[in-house]
Amino acid sequence: MVSNTPIESNYDRESELKAFDDSKSGVKGLVDAGLTKIPRFFHHPRPIINEPKSSTLQTQVDIPIIDLKETNARAEIVENVRYAAENWGFFQIINHGIPQRVLDEMIDGARGFHEMETEEKIKYYSRDYQKKFFYTSNFHLFTGDAASWNDTFLSVMAPQPPQPEELPPICRNIITEYSDQIMKLGFTLLELLSEALGLKPDHLKSLGCGQGLFVLGHYYPPCPEPELTFGANYHTDSGFLTIVLQDSLGGLQVLHQKQWVNVSPLPGALVLLTNDKFKSVHHRVLAQKGTPRISVAAFLRPFHEGIESIVYRPIKELVSEENPCVYKDASLDEFVRLRRNAEGLDGKSALAPFKLDP
Ligand code: OGA
Ligand code: NI
């Protein structure tokens, strides 16, 4: 337990972090080196062993499932989306039209990248967020309070996709094919969400909510002490909509009515930015023993020239005397700055600093 860890006066967290970052081989590098105790900077202040068992629902009975089968009535789908987005901020999508082959190849491509020869892989290691493609471990390594047990690659696929040679050969074609498919599904979801808000189908699209696409390939190596850390700490996402593809291992949990609910493997989604009408769900990934877990998260987000200074505010059609603004106006610049300065991903809503007094 973290609280029982003896205080070592000579513990130099900064240099441990730096050595880890300089190795460029991420969490997988630690596991490959055969380590049996996780470094202290991965120790979470509120580890899973301190949580009451009752805080985790082992079943997934109630997780909303949206079935996009073409023969289903549109109005019914819209109603299901509205219910899920308002009550959960989360749903799983089936019959979405993306061929299983593409999903399988995307998981294999992400695995292939993270499992390639270290000498090859470290060429892509970076913390330069201007790059179109890079891999790193823990975006918040130096600012968060505890590191998480995963490595990630990030590929900016829209509005301007990278040049083919900017992408690693092992997943070059599949990232491109997967992104095309996800963009289509993303636009379908934007239409459904618009309608679920009582707006015209193209409303969210016209706000630019689907112009940018970031594809993140996560690799959660097996963890020797999974009870002391997380695969991904408790957070909400900062894009507009996230579509997650996970392999068959599980480990993703969403917070619903103060309980952590396991999300059994199926493609799923998360939502935000609707004056709190739709929830931005808190979620996390458990660290696990056994085999690596692979997931691919596609973030749809606004993206265009001058976007930093554009001011976002609750959709005016959704604001009335009975439903006053919950958030103040904010530019993306302010949002990103506050989020970067926040203490990593420790469970704070990305929108919390913008909340107006009740
Ligand atoms: C994320 C995320 C979940 C997962 O990328 O923000 O929450 O299952 N991913 O990897
Ligand atoms: Ni997330």
Automatic annotation (TrEMBL):
At the top level of its lineage, which domain of life is listed?
Eukaryota
Q: What Pfam families is this protein classified in? A: 2OG-FeII_Oxy, DIOX_N
InterPro entries tied to this protein: DIOX_N, IPNS-like_FE2OG_OXY, IPNS-like_sf, Oxoglu/Fe-dep_dioxygenase_dom
> Fe2OG dioxygenase domain: which residues?
211-302
Q: Which UniProt keywords apply?
A: Dioxygenase, Iron, Metal-binding, Oxidoreductase, Vitamin C
Q: Has keyword Nucleus?
A: no
Q: Name one GO molecular function term.
A: L-ascorbic acid binding
Q: Known Gene3D superfamilies for this protein? A: B-lactam Antibiotic, Isopenicillin N Synthase, Chain
Q: Of which family is this protein a member? A: Belongs to the iron/ascorbate-dependent oxidoreductase family.
PANTHER family cross-referenced by the UniProt entry:
1-AMINOCYCLOPROPANE-1-CARBOXYLATE OXIDASE HOMOLOG 1-LIKE (PTHR10209:SF884), OXIDOREDUCTASE, 2OG-FE II OXYGENASE FAMILY PROTEIN (PTHR10209)
* Name of the featured protein: Non-heme dioxygenase N-terminal domain-containing protein
Q: What is the lineage of its organism?
A: Eukaryota, Viridiplantae, Streptophyta, Embryophyta, Tracheophyta
